Amino acid sequence: MTTISQTPDTVTANPTSAAPSGTPPVITSPADRLPSRTKLHVETRDQTLVNGVLANLGDVATFALPTGTYTPDQLVAAFQSRIAASEATKANKNAWHATVQAERQAESDIAPLRKSIKQFVASRYGADSAKLAEFGFAPAKPRKTTVQSKATAIQKSEATRVARHTMGRVQKQSIHGQPAAEPAPAGAPAAAGATK
Fold first, then answer.
1. Which end of the chain is more exposed for a tag (fewer CB within 10 A), N or C?
2. What phi, psi does 79 have (nearest 5°)?
3. H or E segment at 80?
4. Measured between alpha carbons, how far is 65 from 63 in angstroms, rounded to an integer?
């Protein structure tokens, strides 16, 4: 077998730590919003290189390269290790997105229960009780309204009632409807005292 050399003879061997030989990693397509097509392009490029080495350089015993001397198995394993690392990144990212979605769903499911228990505790101790802090809830803050704002609110309320013709119970009782006069039947005699 021949040896391909691209470096002077003084280069010492420095083989990379190759991944254990086994089933080569399978390149997967990126899912929505998951790794960019650039990552897929790099993986495909590396796999194409591996395929080219296996198909065309089977007669080369060693590759003397600037980075060291490699056997064909070491060279293939190095690139397959790179592809496997990229695939692991995609798998972990997919798993992370799945767990984030599960967390959001869990929060959506627990929110009504949290609200219910807060209402229960508030009804038991009072909405503004400091006891709520022991359950992780902030006590309700009392509204601070000035005399001027209260007077303005009363004026607005009265103006709204006038504009909408809103009446209270007593006012409604003083209103009585009058029945409409029934029309005279057809062919009825003229009223008394009418002149011809």
1. C
2. -75, -35
3. helix 72-125
4. 6
CA distance 196 to 194: 7
Interatomic CA distance for residues 40 and 55, integer angstroms: 22
Residue for token pair 């979605």 = 101
DSSP, collapsed to helix, strand or coil, labels residue 142 as coil
- Percent of the chain past pLDDT 90, that is, above it, reads 38
Residue pair 60/2 in contact (Cβ under 8 Å)? The answer is yes
- Residue found by looking up tokens 């060693």 in the block: 62
Lowest mean pLDDT among 12-26, 43-57, 129-143, 163-177: 12-26
Distance of alpha carbon 16 from alpha carbon 70, whole angstroms: 8
Q: Which residue has the tokens 């003083």?
A: 174
pLDDT above 80 for 183: no
Q: What is the pLDDT of residue 159?
A: 87
